[in-house]
Amino acid sequence: MDFSHEKLLGKKSINFLEYRIGTESDILYLLDKVKRRIEFFDKDRLYEDYLANKGHREDVYDQYVRRYLFDQGVDYPFSQPRSASGAADIVSGLETDDPFVSEIKLYDGDSYGVAYLAKGFNQAVQYAQDYGKTSAYFLVMNLSDHNLHMPSDEDAQMWPSRQQVNMASRRQST
């Protein structure tokens, strides 16, 4: 008996389930909407606010995203609550099936460059660990003219890009 067809069908079913799990998050849906809202309507105004707030540039985007999430029904999108590793930018719904632990970083290709993004990615992972969560969101506000391509463990066409981090090996190395 040739089971190759059944194996292929099983693999497709698993991929479909993984896709559904990865795309049926309310938070991911809202992050996609806020991304589009910024791109279509508020990019110039936010950039002007960014330029006017030299000491608190990330706060411009943090406040915008928190306000948007709150307006969309996300309860208490707290800004910078303290945890063992520091202060995540936005935390909400920790007691739900769709928790939101996030870190926001700016990218301008200069003072906010690749090293700054690497720091932010590590912070997001650490905050998820602090809150006992298996996922975190790393939000990059691209202020440059460059099209950023983040590495992904998933299909390169899938948005957002996803990185799988082995938390057990991470704890041993820190």
Structure description:
It contains five helices and six strands. It has 174 residues and is an alpha+beta fold. The chain has one domain: Trna Endonuclease, Chain: A, domain 1 (3-Layer(aba) Sandwich). The protein has a four-stranded mixed beta sheet, sandwiched between helices. The protein has a two-stranded antiparallel ribbon with strand order 2-3. A hairpin with a 2-residue loop joins strand 2 (82-83) and strand 3. It starts with a helix and ends with a helix.
In terms of topology, how is this protein built?
Layout: H1 4-23, H2 26-52, H3 57-71, E1 78-79, E2 82-83, E3 86-87, E4 90-92, E5 100-107, H4 114-130, E6 137-142, H5 167-173
Parallel strand pairs: 5-6
Antiparallel strand pairs: 1-4, 2-3, 4-5
Helix pairs in contact: 2-3
- Helix-strand pattern: HHHEEEEEHEH
* Count of strand segments: 6
How many domain units? 1
Mean pLDDT: 83
Range of strand content: 5-15%
In angstroms, what separates the terminal alpha carbons?
Answer: 50 Å
Can you tell me the residue ranges where pLDDT is under 50 for at least 5 consecutive residues?
1-22
| CATH class identity | Alpha Beta
- By CATH, the architecture is named 3-Layer(aba) Sandwich
Shape: globular
Major β-sheet strand ordering: 1-4-5-6
Gyration radius, rounded: 18 Å
Counted by DSSP, the helix tally is 5
- Secondary structure category: alpha+beta
| Sheet of most strands | 4 strands, mixed
- Proportion of residues in helical segments: 40-55%
CATH topology (fold) name: Trna Endonuclease, Chain: A, domain 1
